Amino acid sequence: MSDATDPIAPRASVFAGLRLTWTAIIAGSVLLFWFTLALIGPWIAPHGEAEIISSTTFAPIGEGGILGTDKLGRDVLSRLIYGVRTTMLLALVTTVISFACGVTLGFAAAILKGWFDVIVSRIVEAFMAFPSTLLALVIIGVFGTSITVLVLTVGLVLSTGVFRVSRALGYDVGVMDFVEAARARGEGTWWILTREILPNSMAPLIAEFGLRFTFSILFLSGLSFLGLGVQEPAADWGLMVQENVGGLFLGSSAALLPAACIASLTISMNLLVDWFQQRQQGETVLEKIDQ
Amino acid sequence: MSDILSIRNLRVEGRPPGGAYVPIVKDVSLSVRKGEVLALIGESGSGKSTISLAAMGFARPGCRIAGGEVWLNGYDIMKLSPRERHALRGDAVSYVAQSAAASFNPALRIGRQVIEAPLWHGAGDAATLTAQATELYRKLDLPNPESVGHRFPHQVSGGQLQRLMAAMAMSCGPDLLILDEPTTALDVTTQIEVLKAFKDIIREQGTAAIYVTHDLAVVAQVADRILVLKDGEMVEEGTTDAILHNPQHDYTRKLMAAVRPAPHLVDHVAARDADVPVLSVQNVTAGYGTVTILSDVSMEVPRASVVGVIGESGCGKSTLARVVAGLTPAREGRIELNGKQVEAELDARPREALRDCQMVFQMADTALNPRQRIRDILGRPLQFYHGMTGRKQADRVAELLDLVDLPASFASRYPAELSGGQKQRVNLARALAADPRIILCDEVTSALDTVVAAGVIELLKSLRDRLGVAYMFISHDLSTVASFADEVVVLYAGRVVEKGPSKAVFQAPWHPYTHLLLASVPEMRQGWLEGVADTAEARAASTGSVQIGAKGCPFANRCAKVITGTCETVAPPVRDLPGGLTIACHLPPEALPA
Fold this sequence. Notes:
The complex is a heterodimer of chains A (about 290) and B (about 600). Chain A is mainly alpha-helical. Chain A has helices spanning about 20-45, 75-110, 115-130, 130-145, 145-175, 175-185, 190-195, 200-225, 235-245, 255-290. Chain B is of the alpha/beta class. Chain B is globular and about 70 Å long.
């Protein structure tokens, strides 16, 4: 290329230059809706979380509450609104925990290499060898069903995958010349990790975060369904499916709606992640061709 | 129709991400007759690759063929359906890319990949095609033509792989062969065998060919006609003879000057002998894992001087720079900076020692963090080594940019907004930010265009004169080293075979290996290739391959003057010759190549 300025746009952030598609707009809107509801839910819910509003159990939509009632005659709408907060907050906390552990250890393993990498990798592989649900069941079985144990357990189980991804990323970026240049300058491990490797791993990590968040919702809902997650009378979507499973045969909204909500949240998140990844790859491909 | 390919008024447009279409190729017309080789030359961005791809009716993603006609074998391929065009590719026209290693699937045996296209086109069954391929291997001078097809791509050398790539392209017996910089990534010694093989097979099969390159000396060997391109426009067209001896256009003359800079063979080192050298490497042995790359290497870089390190790829040039920088710790030996010994390990070196010795990498774009602005890239070493922050740092960044001839406004840019040459200047500025005594330049101009590279070399020279910084200049490009270095070290298989002032190294007597290297640099005259490929040196050199860690002299298996019985077993004596020259060879000085 000649010394003339080429017209490639600056790429300050990983989000720069992303073009919206309809899928992304719809998925984003759904997510935004649930996030907003999680924030303001308690103020707009027509009834309390555990408040019994009707003597009719499994009332259909429009009778009793707007979206019917559950097995104890509680308002399904209100419990859904309260539930989004529990479900998303727990998923967020577990995902953050898994990333805090996974990314730190993964990058550390990639930079320090040697015995540290070997030991941590083998431990993680040992954890990964167990089916994740089984592993979680064992840990919760031993330590009991408190929210803290639940969050830590799911965070730990999810962090194994995050560790793998960030270790691979760390190895890939870690051999780039600009990282070598920083090493040759005498920079410490912390600088190399936070200033050189992390900013250049952001795009895949953000995508990974979205996927793990989805997985964590499904995982937590599954545990709640098994009765090991959130405990009554607190509202959680997975728990709601489980406690109202008896109404399924009556076609009750109390069992179907929370399942549909879980689906809408996870599918939207997945679509958004797909869009983000495709855009990232697309931009990189075009950029390479231009040079 | 006698023209195999005829392109009329071709226009190709390209679009940067999110931008509008801009013209890349502007109104280019050309034709290639049967058995003729047309060379497209120009810098990157001149549109030469784009034109060669358009000859197959192909435009890279983000590009489109906006106008013009491409006639191949009497078909206007722009008007063909994708299916018909697909049938032409590989059959009537085929393509040899710059990097053979990237074009072969590493998981499949070579033979299977070579016959893939004819098999697809239904040219015969696997056994017949394999037999034909074997015949091609023989014509391309490949060693063991019967068995080379059973190997995997990583089991053959780079030059052999490039010839196998040509076999793949020739396997359908195409009417037109497109060669896109097929020897640019190869060493000069390998380039000879590959060029020779290409030329022979093109002549023998009567194929028309388009040869894309930026190297005029290479073109002189293979092309019948030359088309010079600049910014997507035709600058000049003519026979090879006319372009080489009587270029009409200024741009063509500029290209020719940049290809072969005049050697600077001034002997002005003697005066510095009294000084403590900036860098002294003594008996260093280093490698990766169980492999030893460098064995017993000693060299010195005097103050404010340029020491060139030359040799083929894989001979340990980059490892030497990494050992000096501490990135690859030496196993044995001593490294001194300004007369003070430094630890082999990077972590054990004081910041002062790190500051004194900076490194500039070959690939300008991967050496800059794409998520940092130039301001931060240059600011960090200022803060790290000199504690400079805020206003002072910003001023110094502007000074550094000025030093490497870039405008101060570049400070707020990201690396992606810079061209290759500009990025390499930023890399240099980052090294200068430390105020180093020596800069290790690892093939810093190899990835750049000749004209841009010449600019970077000029900059390095002026910085040396202004700042008194010394360079260890690693390159496989001998003419650049000859034009720039005060002293030269020749490495082969991780050992120093010859060193001394560049005047002495580039003049007779030579170590047989140095002689081979120098004789392999293409000269800008027609017929050079045939002459050099026939010499005993070239034939001996192409039979063996580099063997690291061999007993005796590592070059023995490729040397035309080998003393059988001695060279393979006994390490060669290191002799001091007049003029400060040191040569490691069993041959007595008077028997050395001259």
